[in-house]
Amino acid sequence: MSFGSGEEGGFNDVSRAYKQNPTLENYLALRRADPDAEIEVAVLGGIDDLFAVEKELERYGIGAHPLMTGVLDANQAAVSELSLKLMDHIVRARELTENGETQLVRRGMVMPDSLIDWLICVALDAQSWTDSMELNRDLIVLIRERLGGANQHYKQAVAAHTRQRNAPWIGAQLKARGIEPTVRKIAELLEVAPSTVTRWYPNNAELQEEIDRLSRLFDSNGSFHISRLSTKKEP
Question: What is the pLDDT of residue 46?
Answer without folding.
Answer: 80
